[in-house]
TrEMBL record:
<feature type="domain" description="Ig-like">
    <location>
        <begin position="2"/>
        <end position="102"/>
    </location>
</feature>
<protein>
    <submittedName>
        <fullName>JAM2 protein</fullName>
    </submittedName>
</protein>
<dbReference type="GO" id="GO:0005886">
    <property type="term" value="C:plasma membrane"/>
</dbReference>
<dbReference type="GO" id="GO:0005923">
    <property type="term" value="C:bicellular tight junction"/>
</dbReference>
<keyword id="KW-0472">Membrane</keyword>
<keyword id="KW-0965">Cell junction</keyword>
<dbReference type="InterPro" id="IPR007110">
    <property type="entry name" value="Ig-like_dom"/>
</dbReference>
<dbReference type="InterPro" id="IPR013783">
    <property type="entry name" value="Ig-like_fold"/>
</dbReference>
<dbReference type="GO" id="GO:0009986">
    <property type="term" value="C:cell surface"/>
</dbReference>
<dbReference type="GO" id="GO:0007159">
    <property type="term" value="P:leukocyte cell-cell adhesion"/>
</dbReference>
<keyword id="KW-1133">Transmembrane helix</keyword>
<keyword id="KW-0796">Tight junction</keyword>
<keyword id="KW-0393">Immunoglobulin domain</keyword>
<dbReference type="InterPro" id="IPR036179">
    <property type="entry name" value="Ig-like_dom_sf"/>
</dbReference>
<keyword id="KW-0812">Transmembrane</keyword>
<keyword id="KW-1015">Disulfide bond</keyword>
<dbReference type="InterPro" id="IPR042625">
    <property type="entry name" value="JAM2"/>
</dbReference>
Length: 103
């Protein structure tokens, strides 16, 4: 079963230095969907190892299985337009509407 449009939860604003979690979920897809977050239209990298993450200055953890995007300490650089895409290899992937996070 192809995925349906996912529900995205993005806070509209956050204080610098706080923990912020964005979530993305859809329940119709079978097999279960994997989720990819985008910021300003660019796919966010999954944190694979400490080395590559540090090199790219990644301040978040993206979980493709659960659909969460977790910022341990947000900075002004994290302000932007976010959306997520659900895909499970069947049919076309589905995106939620873009939401702006202001830090």
């Amino acid at each position: 079963v192809p995925p349906t449009t996912p529900m995205c939860e993005v806070p509209s604003s956050a204080m610098t230095g706080t923990v912020v979690e964005l979530s993305c979920k859809e329940t119709e897809g079978s097999p279960p969907s994997e989720y990819q977050w985008y910021k300003n239209g660019v796919a966010l990298l999954e944190k694979t190892g400490a080395g590559s993450a540090r090199a790219a200055n990644i301040t978040y953890t993206m979980n493709k299985k659960s659909g969460t995007l977790l910022f341990n300490t947000v900075t002004k650089n994290d302000t932007g337009e976010y959306f997520c895409e659900a895909s499970n290899g069947i049919g076309s992937s589905q995106k939620c509407s873009v939401k702006r996070l202001q830090v």
